[in-house]
Amino acid sequence: MSAKPDFKPQLDVEVIAYAPTEFYHCQHCEIVWGHLDFGQKLHAEQRRAGQLPPELQAEYAAISDWILDTAATYGQRVRVKIIDAVSIEGLLKSIRHRSRRFPVIVINGSERFSGFDRELLDRALEQRLGQKEVTPA
User: Ramachandran region of residue 3, left (φ > 0), alpha (ψ -120 to 50) or beta?
Assistant: First the structure.
């Protein structure tokens, strides 16, 4: 039995942003609600009630696309964590990084980028990580 080596990414990226949120019951209750044909209706209502305004939805979609592209480009060398700005963790991170506007992207816990500028973030990652990961076809 071989030991799995500890792998630590080269960069930790935290994205503090307004994020759409849905609440779910425990797994067992979700199964029951699903069999009663109530779960889908409940979650659809949550989506309608908790939707972000259109401009925040567009921004969140752009951030999501950037995160997916970053993962495809750099693989496991980058770990991204999304933090909802209105959560307790988001509040604490906002205080720590002195942020009043969102989104805020924090690289390795110290370098802060206010607002979402894809080109600026891509350059920042490229400067820190250098060559992009080559994925086999």
Answer: beta
pLDDT tens for 25-41 read 677 676 776 777 776 77
Q: What percent of the chain has pLDDT over 90?
A: 49
H helix intervals, 4-86:
27-35, 39-49, 54-74
Q: How confident is the model at residue 94 (pLDDT cuts 50, 70, 90)?
A: very high
In a domain, 59, yes or no: yes
Neighbours of 101 (CB within 10 A): 9
Number of structural domains, the chain? 1
pTM, to two decimals: 0.71
d(CA 95, CA 91): 6
Query: In 3-state terms, what secondary structure has residue 105?
Result: strand
Its domain, for residue 74, covers 11-21+53-129
Nearest to 66 by CA among 130, 125, 7: 125
